[in-house]
Specification:
Blueprint: H1 3-19, H2 24-31, H3 35-43, H4 50-60, H5 64-67, H6 80-92, H7 95-108, H8 110-113
């Protein structure tokens, strides 16, 4: 990561912590670490390891992509229970039924799918 990326991650961690109403000490306790770790993350001196990013994502209710500066939307976190329901349904469907379901979704919610680079959509 570049220095700019470090500072973006640091800024997002600090903003999320403050928006969630936690002190550095409280967040550190939730993560099982020392307050100085949080201070180092927020100063951009250290990028948190993946497991800490995931834990912060859960605590703050934001996506890991947002914390890492890969997304501008802080609330694009997908509910894992919803994903499990969809995955279970997919295992029960034939390939043809799944394709039909995806076409219906894409036609019904064009804006949500408009940024895909999927050449198969051209025959819809």
């Amino acid at each position: 990561m570049t220095k700019f990326d470090n500072l973006l991650v640091a800024e997002r961690i600090k903003i999320c912590r403050k928006n969630s109403g936690y002190s550095q000490e409280e967040l550190a306790n939730l993560l099982g670490m020392k307050r100085t770790n949080i201070a180092n993350y927020e100063a951009g001196r250290i990028i948190p390891p993946g497991n800490i990013i995931v834990a912060m994502s859960d605590i703050f209710g934001v996506s890991t992509d947002y914390l890492l500066g890969l997304s501008e939307s802080f609330n694009d976190k997908v509910d894992s229970e919803e994903l499990k329901v969809i995955q279970r349904a997919k295992t029960k469907m034939s390939d043809d039924d799944w394709e039909r379901a995806m076409k219906i979704l894409k036609l019904s919610f064009v804006e949500a799918f408009d940024d895909e680079d999927d050449d198969e959509d051209e025959d819809i």
